[in-house]
Design brief:
Helix 6 packs across helix 7. The chain has ten helices and no strands. With 193 residues, it is an all-alpha fold. 75% of the residues lie in helices and 0% in strands.
Length: 193
């Protein structure tokens, strides 16, 4: 895969619509050309396969998540507020890019760079959440828990909630959903009295 120019990077997320409409197996390069407006020779110059395009889409999405989550995690807000902000940031990806999230998660096994993606998920989500959980432990707003296990559970929780809305085709009322998830976390992470 060759370095992607900003104009191609801006158009590539539209490829998710082609994958969503046709399914990964039946999506042809012509469908991607039509969805993105990127000429076929240009696509082939940058990518050797549909799998590489899908992999690039996943990496770009995770980089965006890492940037957005990092801003929230590094803020001066209280730990519980930062945790809530991270949940909203991740859920917003599902609301803003439903086709891309559906395709990426349903076809994750097709991406040849699973270990690289796992490392990216850890850096984009798990490490910042662990940092916030530790901060909450220190300020007394979160009880002592295993950070990696809890961050994985939180990631799974938000992923499944986001997919539920995307698959059902319903809009995600992020503030209301976050209130419900916060209440669930509060029950489980609240310090014991």
């Amino acid at each position: 895969m060759k370095k992607v120019t900003p104009s191609i990077a801006a158009a590539l997320p539209e490829a998710a619509k082609a994958f969503a409409v046709h399914g990964f197996e039946r999506t042809r390069i012509e469908h991607i050309v039509s969805a993105t407006g990127i000429p076929k020779p240009t696509l082939y110059y940058h990518f050797s396969s549909k799998e590489e395009i899908l992999s690039w889409l996943m990496e770009a999405l995770l980089q965006e998540l890492a940037t957005d989550v990092g801003v929230v995690a590094d803020s001066d807000a209280p730990a519980r507020e930062r945790l809530s902000g991270i949940l909203a940031t991740y859920l917003r990806l599902f609301a803003e890019r439903p086709e891309l999230c559906t395709v990426l998660l349903s076809d994750l096994g097709r991406i040849s760079q699973i270990p690289v993606i796992a490392d990216s998920v850890r850096a984009a989500f798990h490490e910042p959440v662990c940092k916030v959980l530790e901060s909450g432990l220190n300020d007394g707003s979160i009880r002592c828990i295993d950070g990696p296990v809890t961050s994985s559970a939180i990631f799974g929780m938000v992923t499944m909630v986001g997919l539920h809305y995307v698959v059902a085709g319903d809009p995600i009322a992020i503030p209301e959903v976050i209130d419900q998830l916060d209440e669930l976390l509060e029950l489980g992470l609240a310090p014991r009295r």
